[in-house]
Structures are given as C-alpha cells and as structure tokens.
Amino acid sequence: MKPSRIHALVLALLLSAGHASAADLPPGWPGAGQLFVGTNYQPFDRSREQIERDIERMKAAGMKVVRFGDLSWDSFEPAEGQFDFRLADWIMDRMQAAGLKVLLDIPGQPAPRWLHHKYPGVDIVNAAGTRLAPAERYMDNTSDPDYRRLLVRLADTLLKRYARHPALFAVGYNNESGNGMLSYSEADRQRFIAWLQKKYGTLDALNKAWATQRWSRRFGQWDEVTLPYQDGPGAYEPNLDLRRFWSQQTIEVLELLDASRRRHAPDKPTISNLWDSAPRKGFDYLSSYRGYASYGAMGFYPGDPLYAAFEATMMRAGMDTPIWFNEFTAGGTGYYGTRGRSRMWAHFGLALGAQAVMPWTWHSHHGGEEQALFGLIDHDDRPSWKLGEFATIAKEFAQLEKLGFPRLQKPQVAIAYAFDNIIATNPPKGISNSVAPYINPGYHKQMLGAYEPLYKDNVDVAVIHIGHEDLSRYKLVIVPGMYLLDRASTDNLRKFVAAGGTALMTAQSAKVNDFNQWHTTPLPGGLTDVFGLRTNEFYNVGDVTVRYADAPDAEFKGKGLAPVEVLEPSTAQALARIVNADGQPPAITVNRFGKGQAIYLATSGQPQLLAPLYRRLYTELGIERGPATPEGVIARTVQGRAYYVNTTGDTKDIAITGTRKGLIGGQTWTGTLKLAPLGAELLDSP
C-alpha cells in the first residue's frame, strides 16, 4: 500500500515532532489519521449470493478491512499439494471492487486432517505416551519438520498469489499462536535434548543448571534426559526449560512465516492475532516480537477494564505503532452482549492507542466448535442490532481519525513483565506448599497492583521485557514481583539507573537466577548495590500501616496479602516505615546510584501503597498525568482535547474548565460533563 501525499505529510510531521522514528515504522504503515472498523470473515460455508450480500453490508456499515483466511488451511489446500483458489480469488476481487482491504491470515493452525493422517509426527502425544487424534483446534505439533515444511509451502503459495493483489492490506500468521498443547513424542524428546545441548553445551552444565545433585536426579548421559511433566510432578529448573523450549518452537514458526512474507510481500505489514498468554502453552512474546510483528495485535474480549487495559498495553510492548484488535468483542461480555458495550470498548481501545476493531465474528455459526455464537449477522441471515452498533462505531471513527487518532504514544513509564517469571512463579504440581509464599503472592496480582494506580491516573505505560528494550526511553521503570529477574534484565536495569533513570522494585523480586535457582549472593540478586540494601527475611504483620518520614500525619494502609520483606539498608535511606511492626522497619527505601535512584517497596505491589509513591514521582520526574476522572472513567489528552470513556453502567459527572463542546455527541457542557453510561466524548480545546 503506497501512502498518499497527505499520509506522507503527516508522517513527516510526526517524525519532525519526535513522535516516531523511520526505523520504528513498518513498510506500508497506515499512519496517523486512519482508523479501521472491519470484521472477521469465514466465507467457505457461504454461497456466492450470500458473500455478495455480506460484502454489500460490510461496505454499507462503513467497514474498511476484512480479516480472511484464518482456520481454513484445507479450504485452500484440500489435499496435499492440490491448491484451490477459485473461491478465494473471486472473494479477493469482490473485496477490491467494494473498496475493502484484506488482512490475509496464513492459516497454519489447525493443520488439515490429511496432514495428520499422512504425517503422524504432527499428532500430539500426551505425557503418558498416548497419541491423540486432532479432536479440536490447535492439536498440532508445530515443532514437527513435516508440519513446518508444508506450512512454509502454504505461506509461499498464498503470498505469491496475492502479494500484488490490490485488496491485500496486511498479513497475519497462525491464528492465536501460543495456543495448543505440549507434546511428548520420542521425536520431541530428541528435539528437546538437542535444544539443551545447544543451550548448555555439556552434561555437567545441565546437571548444575537443573540442581540434579538433589535427590539423586543426576544425568550420566544425554539419553537419560526426558521431557519434564508440564502438570507435575517435577522440579523448578526443568519445568522452566520445558516451557522455554516450547516457547521457542512457537517463535520459530512465526519467524518462518515472516521469512515467507519478506520473500513475497515485503511491503505489507504483519498484523497477527497472537495469544502469548494462552494457559496451555503460551510463548515469550515480549522478548521476540520484533522478529515477526509490525503491530501489537490480539483478540480483545474484555471483562475487567483494568486487566483489559494491561493486556492491550502488553501486546503493544515497546512498539511505536498502534494496537490492532484482530478479534474484538461483538456485543460485550458473553455470546449475547449488551447494547452499547462494544461501542464503549472501541473508544476504550482508542484511548489506549488502538487503530482497529474487528468484531468476531461476521456471521453467526451454525455448527462446529462455536455453534450458537452470535455474530453481526444472525443465524437466519438477517442483520443483528450489533451490525448497526458497529456502523455507529465506524461513523465515529471516521470523525475521530481527523482529530488526532490513532494516538501515537511515547510512554514515560515502563512496567517489567516476562514469560520466564510467569513460569517460575507457577511451579508444577507436587512442589511443597511450604515454599509457595516465598515464591510469589500471585504474579498477576503484583503486576496489576503496580499498574492500577497508573491506569486510574490515566498515565500511558509500556509493558516490556526490560532485558530486551532501550530503557533510556523511560523516566521510571517499575519491576513488580519479578521473582526471576534474568541476567540481561539485571544488567539493563543497572545501566538505566546509573545513567539517571529511576527504578522501583517491589518485594519477591530478584530472588532466583536464569536457571530458577536462588541466588547465592545477597538479595536482590545482582542489584544489592543499586538498591543499597540487603533483603533476606520475611515476616507477616497482617495489614500494614505506612508513614512517610517527611509526612508523619499521612498514613497509608496495605493489605496483609503476603509476607513483608525485612529490608537491611546499607547506603539506602528509609523513605517510609511500617509503623505497626516492631521496630518500625523500612517500608520504602531510596538509594542514589550513579546519576539515578533505585526505590524498593518491602511489600507486594499493592495499589494502596504505590499510588501515593507514584504521585510523588510524577512531580519529581516530570511525568505527565492524564485528565482527572471519577472511578470507572478513563481519559487521555489528544491534541489538546480531553477524551473520556465511561466503562460503567452509571452516569458520571466530570469536572471541566469553562464551556466545552462535545465533538462526538455535539452537546455543549459548562463546568460539568455528564458522561452517559458506557458513553464516550471528546471535548474541544478550551
């Protein structure tokens, strides 16, 4: 897609304003001033008459882009090497004639039945050694060489055919990559051994990394190595390497697909519906996304606004490009939904920096795994009320794209997040419960606790793997409950603080090394001099009361959700103390290191304690807050205009300065904006 002269001018202005760099922008990037409402389309069980009618309805609703191809390998290749593109060619041509762009998904999962039948290495083998038939989606062993060979051929064939088609807008890879099951075949065991040999080099190094001297677990030869049990019993170290191995398999497949795109369609961006946090498998997205992603993209099915905001922010990672919701909630929570909720979530996404919403799904499913799932077109082929709601969203997006959307962010705050830490803090079954409190009081609780005050203060945040990013972009880096803080992250954090940055770490951080073994040095491992303290003991005082040294009249309450760490400062100073514990031990310390400072919180990442600390740091570090809002309303400033989204079912009163006009609703407000339930408004500049 060639940018227009207007797009080129906008891009030049962005670059000159420091909002992005040319190296950060992928080929064919749509740029500022373009928002997209589209849909997900599975047309292979539709008649040509229905497809013609579908496309007419999409166009009439103001849709611009259609995601097509996912989950449909055998529709393109019904038998090995026998490709049939007659229907797909016709659909691509019809989309182009209607002015609709196509996000073409390479449908590498699920693999067809014929592939499983002819190449049984693609079948999943469970931990008991039983080969499983592909009874549901994603029961594919993507590490199998035959699978990869045939997947690359599929990608090459599709991209050769459609790379120059005028309807092609972008390319996606393997719907919901990260979902699926671990496999325990003999071939998988051999691949795992080869991966370990490359990683560790010698058996001695593996034995040391896995602590096999404990309980007579030592390996005498490589062939004694087995695949650890994902669900236990097991030990910390092998379980971590098991999940790293399978993560790498997913990443390798994504990189193979991206290599095909670079060969055949290098001018098209990659916008893939990834699922790095899939509970059965998952993968290390944050350390690898630059190898296969132009945009942070995801399926967006929100429930709790706080978690939804965090998840979308995490998928954006360290990119300068907007977020794409490749799958988007159609009607709210559940299959049936609530009128107005999809519109609210669409505006919620725009506030976070989204560029596109694509409801799942266009037409309701009559059969298969998602039968009775209601789409924008009902089961009797009549338009649902939801289609009208997305037409409203498309109309409002067309208005907002002229007013500074999508929002290109430059966050000043980053939160550390890592796949390794998720695995390390969720050990396999069979681990002694007596050590569980010292591992982590719920990593996601720590993470969300650290994010919540920033979310409520309407502060833009980047969620990143701090060992793989340039931290100099940020003023504040928060490290919440990073039980496993790897060497690369440790070194990068040290460099960041020494150069003048501010780091904030919470309890339960930097306890184990890259191998998931406790540090033999003082804790936090590798950073005691940076934070100017040693922490080793734990104690539990129940609810904690914290008082700052320079504000003795103000107290902050923290919940006794987890043990509190005993901080032993060396060069650090106590910023606040726990006043209801013996000796009033430090609750928060601050240490000067190089040109920067390192702050340590003795409790888990609790919003009650972090919110007042953040607000001190906003002023000290010059971090910009968003507009003040009541509970349940998020807001951002967009080119001097205040943008509000009400996530609740109640009307919210928002104090404003003077008289302002609502550019979405058209109403004029003086002193107070009354934001309707699930409402959104962009107020003109005062």
From TrEMBL:
Catalytic activity, as annotated: Hydrolysis of terminal non-reducing beta-D-galactose residues in beta-D-galactosides
UniProt signal peptide: 1-22
PANTHER family in the cross-refs: BETA-GALACTOSIDASE GANA (PTHR36447), BETA-GALACTOSIDASE YESZ (PTHR36447:SF2)
Keywords noted in UniProt: Glycosidase, Hydrolase, Metal-binding, Signal, Zinc
Protein name: beta-galactosidase
Domain Glycoside hydrolase family 42 N-terminal: 41-399
Family in the record: Belongs to the glycosyl hydrolase 42 family.
One family name in Pfam for this protein: Glyco_hydro_42M
EC number: 3.2.1.23
Residues in Beta-galactosidase trimerisation domain copies: 412-623
